[in-house]
User: What shape does this take?
Amino acid sequence: MAVSIEGFMQWLQTPYATVLFTFIGLAFLVTEFLTRPVWSWVGTVGVLFLGAVFVAHLWSGSHWWGMAVFALGAALVIVETHILPGRGIFALLGFLCIFAGMREAITIQSHPLFALVVSSILTLMSMVVFFLYLPKSHLWREMQHRMQISMPASWEAQRELLGAEGITVTDLTPGGVAQIGGVNLRVLTEREFLPAHTPVRVAEVRPDGVVVEPLSKPTHSEVEQS
Assistant: This one.
């Protein structure tokens, strides 16, 4: 068993195996970033493929830092898509790190040109797919909704929202975004989780925010009448 593991690790250190596993891992991660609102098995598979390459190079003690730089690049892309979206700086830095990391990890003394060409092609493909399909993705629509959030300026205007109906744009956990009267507002709910696209009603307006409840929930007047 130990021999087979060692043989597999040695095979992963070859340039072709490294390229294959890196390409598959990148494909799964890009799919995860662009199509999934939450982390799923797709991203996990991508991490496993990239992790296998990283462990193999760490196992040999050579070129391991290349995979470390690659991992840093992937982390920067995650920062761009999930933490500080909209600027593109972290994504560009991330792809530069991905390029540098792949080039170092694939480089063999007799194949420096091979490493340069392959890492360049894979990085460019990832960048094209990422920036071409990002505007069409669920993630981008989510970012657009968040950037369009507004709030009535005065307390009187906020009070006018009481009883208004709308629909949640994002999950409320308990805070999130809902569209009330055609305007995206930062709202919150109490004691329950509300998924996106749930019809809601403004139940209360407080200094700390607008409180909404599911539209199927009866109003106070309905409760009194019953």
Observations:
- The first strand starts at residue 165 and ends at 168.
